[in-house]
Amino acid sequence: MKVIDVLALKWLDPDHTLLGGTVKTSDLGVIPICIHANYDTEVGRQIWADADLGKYGPIFDYQEPEPQPEPVPDEISRRQFFQYLAVLEIITRQESLAALQSGTIPAPLQAIIDQLPTDNDQYEAQMFIIGAQNFNCLHPLSETVRLSLGWSVEQKDDFWREAYKL
After folding, report:
1. pLDDT digits over 136-155, tens only?
2. Residue range 19-33: average pLDDT?
3. To 10 degrees, the CA torsion angle through 160, 162, 126, 105?
4. Are 29 and 48 contacting, i.e. CB atoms less than 8 angstroms apart?
5. In terms of DSSP bridges, do strands 3-11 and 19-25 run parallel, antiparallel, or are they unpaired?
6. So where are the chain's domains?
7. Is the pLDDT of residue 69 over 90?
8. Cβ contacts of residue 144 below 8 Å, gap of 6+?
């Protein structure tokens, strides 16, 4: 492999022990690279040494990645769902206990269900709330509840994250 040029080198770690960038070669075209001082090929070690001497221009500094939000769990249990609704005071503690003990749908959720367009939709939602062992964040009823509560997508995601921790 004959190196024609090395482009856009940047440090990939805060300790400056890994370099990343792009290499233009005569036989492979343009390829990405990730190298270190003791790289396993002569070409890699030579690129490292030349980069250290400034042959390819400045090396861009390491940029700390933006913190990512915690992933949103796919499912939460019935207990987590009703307990966190009570923590947020959307339902009462008594309503959360009744939902788990007897399957009684809390009044605020029943009010949302009552707004569904057909009797069949309402029946299916009631059966789901009463019978589900877990609630999936992608279930259509989850979106209906989100909209009824006036929550943003981020608020819904935060609800699932926090409920999952209980």
Report:
1. 999 999 999 999 999 999 99
2. 93
3. -170
4. no
5. antiparallel
6. 3-52, 75-165
7. no
8. 112, 116, 125
**Which residue shows structure tokens 């001082």?**
37
Q: What are phi and psi of 60, to 5 degrees?
A: -65, 140
Distance CA 37, CA 105 (A): 64
- How much is the average pLDDT of 105-122? 97
Is the pTM above the cut of 0.90?
no
User: CA of 99: how far to CAs of 73, 95, 138, in Å?
Assistant: 22, 6, 21
3-state secondary structure the chain: CCEEEEEEEEECCCCCCCEEEEEEECCCEEEEEEECCCCCCHHHHHHHHHHHCCCCCCCECCCCCCCCCCCCCCEEEHHHHHHHHHHCCCCCHHHHHHHHHHCCCCHHHHHHHHCCCCHHHHHHHHHHHHHCCEEECCCHHHHHHHHHHCCCHHHHHHHHHHHHHC
> Rounded mean pLDDT of the chain?
94
Query: Which residues, in sequence order, are CB contacts of 131 under 8 Å at separation 6+?
Result: 103
Record the tokens describing residue 157, joined without a space.
């995601």
Dihedral pair phi/psi, residue 151, rounded to 5°:
-85, 150
> Token digits for 134?
């877990």
The encoded tokens of residue 4 equal 């024609």
Helix 140-149 and helix 107-114, axial crossing angle in degrees, nearest 10: 100
